[in-house]
C-alpha cells in the first residue's frame, strides 16, 4: 500500500491524537449527532438501513476505533467488518467488543475479493482522501460490494480544500455521491439526505445510499 502523505500522517502521532479525541459509546455517539444535527445516528441509520437484513455482510472502510461498527452491532447487525490503517486504532477497537472483524487495510487497496460484502460504507473518511486518489477509493469500494454503497461525508457542490487541525492536504469536502455516480454509471440512488449543523446552517453533511 502506497505511503502517501495522508496515510503517513494518520499513522503518526496525528492519528493517535484523533483516536483520543473521538471515543464514543453508541449512546454518546447518538448524543453527539443530536447536538450537531438534531438527528441522532440511530435516526439516520434507521432511515437508510431499514431494508438491510441484520445478517448482511457489512464493511466499514476507515473504521478507526469502531464507533460506527459498535453502533451497528448495538442495533442488531451481526456480520460486521472493518479496515483501518492505524495499528493502535485496530488494537483499541478489538478490545471494545467481540465479533468485530477489523484488520489493517487501505481504502485504495481493500484486502477482500470482489463482491464480498452486501454493503460497504464510509463515515467521514472520503473527506480525508486526496482528490488525486479519490477515484482509487471509489473503485475499490465499488469492487468489494455486491449491492449497496452507503456514505456520510462533508458536502460541497465543488471540491473544496479545508484546513484540518491547522494542516493542509488532510481534508476536503465535495459531492461524493455525485463522484460515485459519475464514475460508476450503474449506481442508482436509493436515498439521500443533507443535514446542516445546528450551530452553523452553512455547514452541510450528506448521507446517501446507492445500489448497483
UniProtKB/TrEMBL annotation:
Pfam families: Methyltransf_11 (PF08241). This is Methyltransferase type 11. Residues 59-145 form the Methyltransferase type domain. It comes from Malaciobacter canalis. InterPro entries: Methyltransf_11, Pseudamin_synth-assoc_MeTrfase, SAM-dependent_MTases_sf. Signal peptide: none annotated. The keyword GTP-binding does not apply. GO terms for biological process: methylation.
Amino acid at each position: 500500500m502506497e505511503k502517501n502523505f495522508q496515510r503517513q500522517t494518520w499513522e503518526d502521532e496525528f492519528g493517535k491524537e484523533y483516536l483520543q479525541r473521538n471515543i464514543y459509546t453508541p449512546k454518546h455517539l447518538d448524543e453527539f449527532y443530536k447536538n450537531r444535527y438534531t438527528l441522532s445516528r440511530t435516526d439516520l441509520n434507521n432511515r437508510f438501513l431499514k431494508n438491510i437484513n441484520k445478517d448482511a455482510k457489512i464493511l466499514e472502510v476507515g473504521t478507526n476505533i469502531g464507533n460506527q461498527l459498535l453502533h451497528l452491532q448495538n442495533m442488531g447487525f451481526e456480520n460486521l467488518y472493518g479496515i483501518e490503517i492505524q495499528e493502535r486504532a485496530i488494537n483499541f477497537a478489538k478490545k471494545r467488543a467481540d465479533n468485530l472483524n477489523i484488520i489493517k487495510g487501505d481504502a485504495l487497496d481493500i484486502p477482500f475479493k470482489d463482491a464480498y460484502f452486501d454493503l460497504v460504507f464510509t463515515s467521514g473518511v472520503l473527506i480525508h482522501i486526496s482528490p488525486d486518489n479519490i477515484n482509487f477509493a471509489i473503485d475499490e469500494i465499488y469492487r468489494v460490494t455486491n449491492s449497496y454503497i452507503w456514505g456520510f461525508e462533508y458536502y460541497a457542490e465543488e471540491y473544496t480544500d479545508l484546513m484540518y487541525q491547522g494542516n493542509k492536504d488532510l481534508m476536503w469536502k465535495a459531492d461524493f455521491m455525485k463522484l460515485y455516480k459519475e464514475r460508476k454509471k450503474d449506481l442508482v440512488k436509493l436515498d439521500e439526505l443533507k443535514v446542516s449543523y445546528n450551530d452553523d446552517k452553512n455547514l452541510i453533511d450528506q448521507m446517501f445510499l446507492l445500489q448497483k
